[in-house]
Amino acid sequence: MATFVISKRLSGVYKYELTSRKGKTIFTSNNFELRFECEEHIEYLKKGLDRMIFMRFKSGNGKFFFRMVLDEKEVAVSRRYTTQLLLQKGIDEIMRSAAEAEVLDFSSGSDIFPDIFGEEAES
After folding, report:
1. Alpha helices in the chain (DSSP H)
2. Structural domains in the chain plus CATH codes
3. How far apart are alpha carbons 111 and 30 in whole angstroms?
4. Distance separating alpha carbons of residues 77 and 13, to the nearest angstrom
5. Residue 29's closest CA among 10, 45, 16, 19?
6. Mode of pairing for the β-strands spanning 102-105 and 3-8
7. Which residues lie closer than 8 Å to 37 by C-beta, 6 or more apart?
8. Which pairs with CB-CB distance under 8 Å and at least 24 residues apart come from 21-26?
9. Distance from the Cα of residue 19 to its chain's centroid
10. pLDDT tens-digit profile of 39-85?
């Protein structure tokens, strides 16, 4: 089953990704100023899957990707795929499992994993 993962970019804005059951990113959302906006947008996307438009493209280096459009707004961009078949499998995975996908919030940064060495990591 796919999972939505919320994280924070180095620039301080939030984003979410849909990852496959194998942990590969299927698509990445646009940027959001606040974390709760990601959660709201995920729910909006889940409810709008039947209206989702997938625009397929081929990059200059021959990789395939798609842009997701919902209610005339681009909401996400897929990762790059080596074949059109793999691209279609990514779209199929979205349609099959995004509506039931759980949401994981990794935006808090270093608090996600416990300190196994007994001391704080120094930057």
Report:
1. 35-47, 84-97
2. 3-105 (2.30.29.80)
3. 24
4. 17
5. 16
6. parallel
7. 14
8. 24/79, 25/79, 26/2, 26/78, 26/79, 26/90, 26/93, 26/94
9. 6
10. 999 999 999 999 999 999 999 999 999 999 999 999 999 999 999 99
